[in-house]
């Protein structure tokens, strides 16, 4: 029988950015914020996600090696590039409490690396236990810098359920406190015996440090289970989705200052420095003109 345990919880009215950061860095690695988004926002997001995943089973996905072997990939669907699919996704990614927490956790110029939906249909598969980008291929640790660790964060994730997240529908599983030591989980870690579940209602948001071992679980119910997944990164980590290009020039032109930051426009590298027309001092404490 599946364990029915839940993640720590705080109401959106009393949640603080410091409390979120504490839970991610020194606490279990995850925290649920109750009632952060309105019914109307959830309904609109769900409408878009369902419409874009009705007949698109074949977008790229991750951590579904077993489902691919078993020919069951069509029972889980990803919807990428959500910024271009509705204003509600900009509202979600710019939610003020989340932005405030991310500024403290990842630095004031943090960016968004991805905003996508994960839909698991009834009887759809769960994932391999993993950690998230940019740690997601840490099963090959030799491809990372020597002595890399999680004493400072390179990722934060926000999961916004669009359907009830329960043990039956496949609420995300995670092992609390595993973010403290950077490691990709193995069979020997007995993930499924030790895990807790991120149970939540539509409108809640679960914020977690992606170095915490976790995975989507199988949907053993008769209803869909979808969520918006947002990935935030420090300014210097290459984003996973090319959001700026995917959203398009018209979107960028009308973007808010926060959205421009999320698209990486506050930190203008890489550049062709040889081609910069005006010779200025671009970096440094004194008189720097990026
Ligand atoms: O949908 C979920 O519950 C989690 C998805 C996830 O962890 C991922 O795709 O990296």
Topology:
Layout: E1 9-11, H1 17-25, E2 30-34, H2 39-53, H3 65-69, E3 76-79, H4 87-93, H5 96-106, E4 111-120, E5 156-161, E6 173-174, H6 191-194, E7 196-197, E8 205-208, E9 214-215, E10 225-233, H7 243-247, H8 249-253, H9 257-262
Parallel strand pairs: 1-2
Antiparallel strand pairs: 2-8, 3-4, 4-10, 5-8, 5-10, 6-7, 6-9
Helix pairs in contact: 1-5
Bound molecules: 2-oxoglutaric acid.
2-oxoglutaric acid binds at residues 62, 118, 132, 172, 214-216, 227, 229.
In words, what does this structure look like?
It is a single chain. With 290 residues, the chain is α+β, with helices and mostly antiparallel strands. β1 (9-11), α1 (17-25) and β2 (30-34) form a beta-alpha-beta unit. It has a single domain, classed as q2cbj1_9rhob like domain (Jelly Rolls). It is built from 9 helices and 10 strands. 2-oxoglutaric acid is lined by residues 62, 118, 132, 172, 214-216, 227, 229.
